[in-house]
């Protein structure tokens, strides 16, 4: 029994010894490993090489396939990278997006704010869907760097103020959805640089008016939605009626673009504003040229009268350009009590459209323009006033200027009925040097004899 144990024990010792030897089972010092045993290190490295290549490729592609945990990212058949982050209850734009993302969907979340750097990780994005969030603040610059953007959806948010200057860089934008927000106004040039814009959605906002020219410079526009806005159908939106009558743009639900005010037009379509309610201004500038035997105690006073017509009644404004200064007067500056604004005391403008320039001097020469402005448009008419002194200038002036007129009242007119190539006028004033004349009290006062005052037609200025 002891011998058997010993032999058994010996086998037990020899097996571990062979296992702990140089090759383990199947190893023979002279023959090396058997064919069915372990392979040499070179053969094992050959098998690992494809795996290492795959790992290296994955490391290189890792940044391109980066995807936030809240999103699912995939590559479309056309090679575009899609980041789908909708319906994830996100409160901000997630970080960790791949810079190669071209389609980013963030709709139906709880995002309330877009900052200047919200989309710096996705400079190549072409389609950005942000509808049905709670966005109320959009910082300037939020979209300015997304120069490849073609589709932008900001609908169904709380946007009242928008950095319209950001759109200047998005010249390739084709679809812009800003419907169902809180926009109360738009700058007239908000979309000026969007040459490729095809579809514009502005419906269901708080727009009460739109500036004339808002949809100009949009040669690709084919669809427009502006219905369900509380439009005040004053003559400020009369241009919109005229524009819809001649445009080829499809205006969705045009019959639902209704007036909320004024009361007489409430419930009527913007396109039904009566034409007679809104008439563009016409303007006529008149001056008197026959002021014989007029005594001016303070020198020559030039008087111009601006007559205007239109609906609503136009406001009268004046522009004066002399060799030394430019003056703009928006409305009368002479009050009922006779007080005049100190900075404009040289030019007295009255409520009835008359302008008077006392002590008219050489430095007052220049172009005098009257403007008629109402909600439909603006018209202006100008005269060029020059002052000259001569003992007997009338005959010389008429001889030098074959277009010069005889003495008498003259006017310059601008309105819809006028031929656009109509002539204008140059106003030339020639007067005698003052001479003394006795006053009623017997004293001597300076007298300006205006019998030689000549107002002549000339250079075309009414255009």
Q: Could you list some keywords that capture this structure?
A:
single chain, 463 residues, alpha/beta, nine-stranded mixed β-sheet, five-stranded antiparallel β-sheet, 4 helices, elongated, disordered N terminus, disordered C terminus
Could you characterize what this model shows?
With 463 residues, this protein is an alpha/beta fold. It has a nine-stranded mixed beta sheet, with no helix packed on it. The N and C termini lie far apart (135 Å). The protein has helices at 2-19, 41-61, 238-246, 394-400, and strands at 27-28, 32-33, 72-75, 81-84, 101-105, 113-114, 127-129, 137-138, 151-153, 175-177, 199-201, 223-225, 231-232, 250-251, 259-261, 279-287, 302-311, 315-322, 326-330, 348-349, 354-357, 366-373, 378-389, 410-414, 425-431, 435-438, 444-447. Helices cover 12% and strands 26% of the residues. Mean pLDDT is 76; it is low at 1-38, 53-63, 289-297, 390-409, 416-426 and 430-463. It is built from four helices and 27 strands.
Describe the secondary-structure layout:
Layout: H1 2-19, E1 27-28, E2 32-33, H2 41-61, E3 72-75, E4 81-84, E5 101-105, E6 113-114, E7 127-129, E8 137-138, E9 151-153, E10 175-177, E11 199-201, E12 223-225, E13 231-232, H3 238-246, E14 250-251, E15 259-261, E16 279-287, E17 302-311, E18 315-322, E19 326-330, E20 348-349, E21 354-357, E22 366-373, E23 378-389, H4 394-400, E24 410-414, E25 425-431, E26 435-438, E27 444-447
């Amino acid at each position: 029994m002891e011998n058997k144990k010993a032999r058994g024990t010996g086998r037990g010792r020899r097996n571990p010894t062979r296992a702990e030897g140089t090759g383990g089972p199947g190893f023979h010092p002279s023959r090396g490993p058997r064919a069915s045993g372990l392979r040499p290190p070179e053969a094992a490295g050959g098998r690992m090489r494809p795996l290492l290549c795959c790992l290296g490729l994955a490391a290189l592609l890792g940044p391109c396939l980066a995807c936030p945990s809240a999103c699912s990212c995939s590559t479309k058949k056309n090679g575009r990278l899609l980041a789908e982050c909708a319906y994830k209850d996100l409160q901000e734009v997630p970080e960790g997006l791949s810079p190669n993302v071209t389609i980013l969907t963030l709709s139906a979340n709880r995002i309330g704010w877009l900052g200047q750097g919200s989309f710096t990780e996705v400079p190549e994005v072409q389609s950005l869907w942000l509808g049905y969030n709670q966005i109320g603040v959009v910082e300037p610059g939020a979209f300015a760097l997304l120069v490849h953007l073609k589709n932008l959806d900001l609908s169904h948010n709380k946007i009242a103020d928008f950095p319209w200057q950001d759109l200047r860089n998005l010249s390739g934008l084709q679809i812009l959805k800003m419907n169902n927000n809180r926009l109360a106004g738009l700058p007239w040039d908000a979309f000026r640089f969007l040459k490729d814009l095809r579809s514009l959605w502005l419906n269901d906002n708080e727009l009460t008016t739109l500036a004339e020219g808002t949809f100009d410079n949009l040669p690709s526009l084919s669809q427009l939605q502006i219905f369900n806005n509380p439009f005040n159908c004053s003559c400020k939106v009369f241009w919109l009626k005229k524009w819809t009558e001649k445009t080829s743009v499809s205006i969705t639900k045009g019959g639902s673009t209704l007036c909320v005010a004024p009361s007489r037009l409430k419930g009527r379509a913007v396109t039904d504003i009566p034409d007679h309610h809104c008439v563009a201004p016409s303007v006529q500038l008149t001056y008197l040229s026959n002021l014989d035997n007029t005594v001016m105690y303070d020198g020559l006073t030039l008087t111009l009268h601006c007559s205007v017509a239109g609906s609503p009644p136009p406001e009268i404004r004046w522009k004066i350009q002399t060799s030394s200064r430019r003056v703009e007067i928006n409305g009368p500056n002479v009050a009922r009590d006779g007080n005049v604004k100190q900075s404009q005391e040289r030019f007295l403008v009255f409520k009835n459209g008359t302008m008077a320039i006392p002590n008219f001097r050489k430095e007052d020469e220049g172009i005098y323009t009257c403007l008629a402005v109402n909600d439909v448009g603006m018209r202006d008419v100008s005269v060029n006033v020059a002052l000259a002194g001569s003992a007997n200038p009338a005959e010389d002036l008429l001889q030098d200027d074959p277009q010069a007129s005889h003495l008498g009242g003259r006017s310059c007119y601008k309105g819809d009925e006028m031929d656009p190539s109509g002539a204008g006028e140059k106003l030339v004033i020639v007067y005698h040097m003052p001479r003394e004349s006795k006053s009623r009290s017997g004293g001597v006062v300076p007298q300006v004899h205006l019998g030689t005052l000549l107002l002549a037609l000339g250079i075309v200025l009414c255009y």
